[in-house]
Each structure stands twice: as C-alpha cells, then as structure tokens.
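Thread: "does anyone have the structure for this chain?"

Original post by V.I.:
We have the sequence but no experimental structure in hand. Need at least a predicted one for the grant figures.
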Amino acid sequence: MTDLRFEAYQPGDEVAISSLVWEVFSEYVGPGYAEEGIETFRQFIQPEELRKSAASGCFNMICCWSGSELAGVIAMRDSNHVSLLFVRREFHRKGIAHELFRLAKGECLGNHPEISEFSVNSSPYAVNIYERLGFEATGPEETQNGITYVPMKMTSQKS
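Reply from O.Q.:
Generated one for you, tokens below.
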C-alpha cells in the first residue's frame, strides 16, 4: 500500500466518488437488485447528493487515492454507520477496505468516544467483507425501497 494515499474528502471529490461507487456497485451489487433498488441507490450517490450529505456534517468520507485515481472510499453517517464502502476492482485484496474502515472508525471514536457500536446495512455481496472487518449479522436479509441488505453491527472495541 506504499503508493496509496488516504485522505479526508475534499469538496470537489464527489464526482470521482460517485463514479467509483457506481462502477463497483454496477459490477458487484446491482445485478442482484430490482430496478427500484438500482435507481434508489443511483440517486443516493449523485455528486450533488454526496456534496450535500458531506456539507450537512453528519456524513464523513475518507478517500484512498493511487496517484490521481480514486481507488476506494468509505462514508460514515452519524459517526457510527457505514453508509458506503467501495473499492475499485483492480485494488481489491490489498487491504484498502480494512484501512479505510480503520481510519474512519478511529476518527469517529476520536470525535465521539461514547460510541459503543458501529452498524452497516450490507449488500448480500459484501457480507463476508464486513464479517472480516468484525461485523456480525443482527437479522435476516431485508429489502427496503428495492435495496436488499443484511443488517450488521460490531462493538467499537473490535478491530
């Protein structure tokens, strides 16, 4: 990971973030979703929506860059919920998702030491990825607005 840079989101990153997330979603997650879910997700990741979410103060993003290419991104909502965690295909299995989560978790706990757990609504595709990060399913697969997910949690003490 020596040529990778992990940096906090900066205004202007939202176009690259939206493009990366859409690319990865379309390849790995979207094929299992109904049209309604695909459209719901597409609207959520539009650059203007990402910018507004970041400006609201309740949505933190960290980017992983390889040169000028965005390799991965994590977005935390309300300091304890993983809202987005996506890594471009050619950067899979290099520890980027783990490092993004480690950095985001550390930032969240640094700002809010009272946080006792983290949550994520994982796509069925990503359940094992989140399990490797220390999350456990807390219920069965659900679908809301066409988005299928498995609710998962982990205590803030887990790595």
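V.I.: this helps a lot. The chain has one domain: 4-115.
O.Q.: and The mean pLDDT is 94.
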